[in-house]
Amino acid sequence: MDLRLAGRWALVTGAGKGIGRSIVKALHAAGARVVAVSRTQADLDSLVREVGARPCVDLADWEATEQALGGVGPVDLLVNNAAVAFLQPFLEVTKEAYDMSFNVNLRAVIQVSQIVARGLIARGAPGVIVNVSSQASQRGLTNHSVYSHRVDPLPVPVQIRVNAVNPTVVMTPMGQAAWSDPQKAKAMLDRIPLGRFAEVENVVDTILFLLSDRSSMTTGSTVPVDGGFLAT
């Protein structure tokens, strides 16, 4: 299926590993020109063939983010994928874990979306934003009190479509760190009707669809990629 992404500029945060890295490669394969954002320079250097620009910045730092991304453009498509995960029991949540989670998982999404939206409005161009959220934003999970605060669709000006994907567990490095315990994994798998965790490609394919004109009538939506978890 032709997604008609060729020649369009896409910015992907959290591009160094996992879902973000796969999104960068898929967008490049679809003909898009990609700006990959990560806080780890070595990860960006390994994507040199796939990307047109590689800003290295810690999105938890508002001023550094503004300086690194304020002049990037023109951007047509944005994937807010960067996230951190501190899995702590509710009564043991620390200020440090909360602050870092808030700064990266929430505040940075708003800031980067503002930067891209201002550019689109100045150009009078339509655009698309996809936020990579989680099933945990809609259903309480043990030890996910902080991580559950992920951003689903944000209200932005018309002509900019904004949607979110809400995956179940995906066995990225972050997913493996959180769900490598077989007993813990089984408890989650037993709640997923399809009986398996998501592959990275399942999430990437959904994101590509939402970025493309094939979803031109879809905005303000959350799209579960969860094997039926939220339906149970």
TrEMBL record:
Which InterPro entries does the entry link to?
L-xylulose/Carbonyl_redctase (IPR051737), NAD(P)-bd_dom_sf (IPR036291), SDR_fam (IPR002347)
Biological-process GO terms, alphabetical: glucose metabolic process; xylulose metabolic process
Report keywords, A-Z.
Membrane, NADP, Oxidoreductase
Predominant location? membrane
Q: Report the locations given in the UniProt record.
A: Membrane
| Membrane-spanning intervals of the chain | none
Cellular component (GO) terms are: membrane
Give any GO molecular function from the UniProt entry: L-xylulose reductase (NADPH) activity
User: One Pfam family for this entry, by name?
Assistant: adh_short_C2
What the record says about family reads: Belongs to the short-chain dehydrogenases/reductases (SDR) family.
Name of the protein: L-xylulose reductase
